[in-house]
Amino acid sequence: MTFVIALPCVDVKDKACVDECPVDCIYEGERSLYIHPDECTECGACEPVCPVEAIFYEDDLPEEWQPFTAANAEFFDALGSPGGSARLGLIRQDHPVVAALPRAVHRVP
Ligand code: F3S
Ligand code: F3S
Fold it and tell me: Which ligand has its closest atom nearest to the C-alpha of 68?
């Protein structure tokens, strides 16, 4: 089990969660951030600070956003376990689930 970042983060990327994470396991992709499922210690610190309520404990993820569990995990298929997001910075890619989403007008900065 882990925490998962879901749809509301896409094209918003507030990043308040990154500042709260004690193990630096929240990584920045092009349109969303992703929680590394193996590096997350399930401390829960990130969940209440997200202003758009994009972060959920895996078991509490709404049904319509279930694909985001795999999206968060599979984002790291090619990255492995970097051991901290700060050293990577912005990763110029997204999981296909995120990349396929239309750019909603209200979400474009
Ligand atoms: Fe995204 Fe919320 Fe973090 S918008 S970057 S999950 S604070
Ligand atoms: Fe995991 Fe969030 Fe804590 S990503 S380690 S629950 S701050």
Answer: 1
Query: Atom of ligand 1 at shortest distance to CA of 32?
Result: 1
Handedness of CA 54, 11, 89, 97 (dihedral sign): positive
Indicate which atom in ligand 2 lies nearest the CA of residue 23: 5
- pTM for the model stands at 0.95
Span 28-75, pLDDT tens digits: 999 999 999 999 999 999 999 999 999 999 999 999 999 999 999 999
Which CATH code, of 1.10.10.10, 3.30.70.20, 3.30.460.10, 3.40.50.300, is assigned to 3-88?
3.30.70.20
* Residue having the nearest C-alpha atom to atom 3 of ligand 2: 43
**All residues at 6 or more sequence positions from 73 whose CB lies less than 8 Å from its CB, including other chains:** 37
Joined together, the tokens standing for residue 18 give: 């990154």
- Give residue 34 CA to ligand 2 midpoint distance, Å: 11
